[in-house]
Structure prediction request, 263 residues.
Amino acid sequence: MIGIFDSGIGGLTVVKALQKKLFHQQLLYFGDTARTPYGSKSPETLVRYARQNTEWLLEHGAKIIVVACNSASAAATVQLRKDYPGVPIFGVITPAVEAAVTKTRNGLIGLVGTRATVSSNLYGTYAKKMSDGKVQVFANACPLLVPLVEEGWFSAGETKRIVKKYVHPLRAKNVDTLILGCTHYPLLKQIFQQKMGNQTILIDSAEELAKSVVHYLDENPDSIKKLPKKKSVFYVSDITSHFQYIAERWLGETIELHKVACA
Ligand code: DGL
Prediction:
């Protein structure tokens, strides 16, 4: 079973991307809705949460861990790999950076994400390493976008204006590729494309993460058993009717939510 965790609802974009590509795997999702948002937390807190979430997923049968949340990936993926050496652990950052470095034509990449993701500087560091210093990453934190997406304002005028304002400094740097470095932003893809212009290549970090998991499973077919398709299982640390509503809207299916007691 593949275990996925996120700060709350955003990781469902990764679930959706994985469900499209993996037909034999049951997904076990944990959304830390009681402690969301992660995007404004310190790296120390995020490492602590990430360890607890990973522990819980492993205890409940996960053989592979997917850190769907960009903020948690930035703060904790490296540490989790040290803490659980035998467990394949996937974060969002490496696959998204690889895609961006491959696709950029002018070597100028933009990144939008939460404050935690942007201030980690990890996207820039990895991109430099992967390209032998040939590409540059310009980042802008977009803290207002998560609440707008959670309100379902995917195409509201207010959302468009805010996205325009956030991408303005990146357009000024002439980036030709933009990494959507937050679980929620794939739901605003059209607006980002509009505001960046048609020529800009958008990198959907949820899609890239899903591709890297599929690639790993293709290369390591025995790492987890193929199972007859079973419904994915969803756990959260706090249940609200709003979560249930958005989750079903995003996934396009009815889901049963279970509550887990959180440390
Ligand atoms: N899941 C978070 C991320 O991708 C966004 C929501 C939050 O701040 O918790 O960074």
Notes: DSSP finds eleven helices and ten strands in the chain. The first strand starts at residue 2 and ends at 6. The longest helix spans residues 43-59. Residues 6-8, 10, 36-39, 69-71, 114, 117, 146, 182-184 surround D-glutamic acid (CB under 6 Å).
